[in-house]
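re: the backbone from monday

yeah here it is again, tokenized this time
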């Protein structure tokens, strides 16, 4: 079997195509979650935490700051000053928790829908099997 034919069979399998669709939808879904976190959730959390809207700018300087360097995270990183940037971690952690919760709710709903579907009735027994069973039962008598 040629390499191209083998690759074509692999790529056209249902699981590979499902995975590709899942990755594409996951990428778009990630953008939606980022927007929900950044535009809806984080402003509420920042209000509770003291009114700071942008957590990614929260950091602790761990080294000496060269003179003339602005005290922003970007400027400190460009100056190669070691910083403990915990604000960005908080944002990513909230993003992860929301994403995990949404996936949990989706799977829970899918499981509920699976249980709601009535089981398919068993296929009808073929006529020849029914006749053989009747013959067997009459021979037992």
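seq for it, each position gets an aa:
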């Amino acid at each position: 079997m040629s390499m191209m034919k083998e690759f074509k069979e692999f790529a056209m399998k249902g699981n590979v195509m499902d995975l590709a669709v899942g990755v594409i939808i996951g990428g778009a879904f990630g953008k939606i979650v980022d927007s929900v976190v950044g535009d809806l959730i984080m402003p509420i959390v920042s209000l509770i935490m003291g009114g700071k809207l942008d957590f990614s700018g929260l950091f602790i300087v761990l080294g000496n700051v060269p003179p003339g360097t602005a005290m922003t995270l970007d400027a400190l990183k460009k100056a190669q000053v070691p910083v403990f940037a915990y604000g960005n971690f908080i944002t990513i952690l909230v993003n992860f928790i929301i994403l995990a919760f949404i996936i949990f709710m989706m799977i829970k709903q899918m499981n509920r829908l699976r249980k709601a579907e009535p089981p398919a009735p068993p296929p009808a027994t073929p006529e020849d099997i029914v006749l053989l069973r009747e013959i067997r039962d009459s021979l037992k008598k």
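The beta strands are 60-61, 83-84. The chain has a mean pLDDT of 81.
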